Structures are given as structure tokens and as C-alpha cells.
Amino acid sequence: MPEIASVVGLVKHYYLESVVVEALRGVSVGFEEGDFVALMGPSGSGKSTLLNLLGCLDRPTRGQYVLAGHDVSDLDDDELSEVRSRYLGFIFQSYNLLPQYTVVENIEIPLLYQGQPLTDEKRRRCRQLAEMVGLANRLDHRPMQLSGGQQQRVAIARALVNDPHIILADEPTGNLDSKTSDEIMQLLKDLNAAGKTIIMVTHENDIAARAKRVIRLRDGLIESDQRLPG
Length: 230
Description:
Elements: E1 3-16, E2 19-32, E3 36-40, H1 47-54, E4 62-67, E5 70-71, H2 77-87, E6 88-92, H3 103-113, H4 120-132, H5 148-160, E7 166-170, H6 178-193, E8 197-201, H7 205-208, E9 213-218, E10 221-227
Parallel strand pairs: 3-8, 3-9, 6-7, 7-8
Antiparallel strand pairs: 1-2, 1-4, 4-5, 9-10
């Protein structure tokens, strides 16, 4: 499979007063189209920093990031925003839903941020996505009326509304019980089987085992990169 994203010599420093924190110290790695990758490592290893850079939520101190054939390393804020809306979908541990909005309205949010008109066709697609993730009977519910697993399903549908090239998931099962975690992971595996590239941060070995490839980071460097059997 061709690479959908790659980083070369990626370095990220954070400056805290007189202290320099070397979050990434020269990471080079590629991600194939249609892959399902788990990023693992202890706290401070650089896995979340790498995910943020892959998500164009931050810029590297040095190094190159090529996404869908485009070098996005030196883009300004507006250009990064455009890249995020065109190529990337995000799933967060804390769901990040707006409490005053219904399920369907939360799924529509990325379209609003892009200034797209909410046509009947787009609204229909948002309802279809809600139904696809198992929320057909919850379309008008608000987040406080949903379980944690249902809220994460809304977040997954929201991540899909722009038909992204890559889904970036940051501890997507971190706030869920074991049964609900299994359901969310099966949903992600189904999306991957349908062709979506998924890059996921997790600290749980059993969750990482559901991916196709596990990359472990330590001290801002890649410690191991293993493709899983099956």
C-alpha cells in the first residue's frame, strides 16, 4: 500500500521558562494507506506529541511531515486548519461534544467550522452517520442523555463527516468500561476494514492488540515498530 503520511527527522521542543523539553528527538516513520496503527509508550514518551503533529494541531521544531503527498511542515495556522478539515478526523478520550447540541448537531459541527451550508443532503448524511454508529434512536438526544459509549459513537460519526483520509484517535476507549471498549474497537476495526486509515494512541495492550501495527515510543524516539499477525 502507498504511504498516506510520513515524517522524517521530526523534532519537537517545548520551552518552559529556562527549561527545554525534548518531546520528540528525531522520529522518522511512515503510515500506509488503510493501516491501523497503535502508538504506545510511557507517559512523556512522545506519543501524544506525535499524534498532535500528525493531526496538524502543532508544528514541529524541525523535520518534515508529508500528508497525502503534500509537505505540511511549514504551513501557517489557516493552512493547517484547511489541511485538518480536508484530510483528518479526530476522536478524543473526553468526546468533546457540545452539551447544548443534539447528536446530529454535534456531528454537523465540522461542517459549520468550514463554513459549509447545511444542505438537506449534508443533514441527511449526518443522520446516516449517526445511524451507522448505532444511534438511530438517539438522533435528538443531547450528550447528557447518552452513555459514555454512545457519546464516543457520536464523536466517531463526527470524525467521519468530512470523509477524512486519516482518523486520529487519542485514547478512544480511555473513559469506557471493558464491554463498551470492545464495541468501540469493533466499530474502529469495521471502519478500517472499509478502507479508513487509523492512528490511535493507547496505553492498554489489549486495545493495541486490535490494531495491525504497534509503534512504541520512549524518550522521544521510536523504540519498536511491530506489525501484528493476522
